[in-house]
Amino acid sequence: MTLLIWKPEYAIGIAAVDYEHQELIRMINDLDRRMQGPVVAAEIEILLGELHAAISAHFALEELAMVKAHYAELPQHKADHEALLEQIRDMMDQFVAEPDQGRRLLGERLENWFEKHFATFDARLHQATGD
Predict the structure, then answer these.
(1) pTM, to two decimals
(2) CATH code for residues 8-129
(3) In the prediction, which pLDDT does 126 show?
């Protein structure tokens, strides 16, 4: 089963941001698949670190687009980004302490966060950029 599926309504109309959203979904799904089989904790820690770095870089790109668009909800959107990054750090710590709990948190938090974030914050960003 695929954890996250790209949906056309997730597109915000900024090609680089939309591409990165799709890549992040691919990374998350790859991580989820790897966590379903025999888990090598060191590999999962590395993948979680790579995911955190990729999401951080993506958020910087998205926030730059918001600044250029004079996006009024930048502070709230940025706060939501920071909350996800904190959750990923928590998942990394949780996975090291208890891998089974880390697996559960990955599925629950990322799926819920992406669905909510794409449907609310990113949808409004799409409207603000006029694309």
Answers:
(1) 0.80
(2) 1.20.120.50
(3) 63
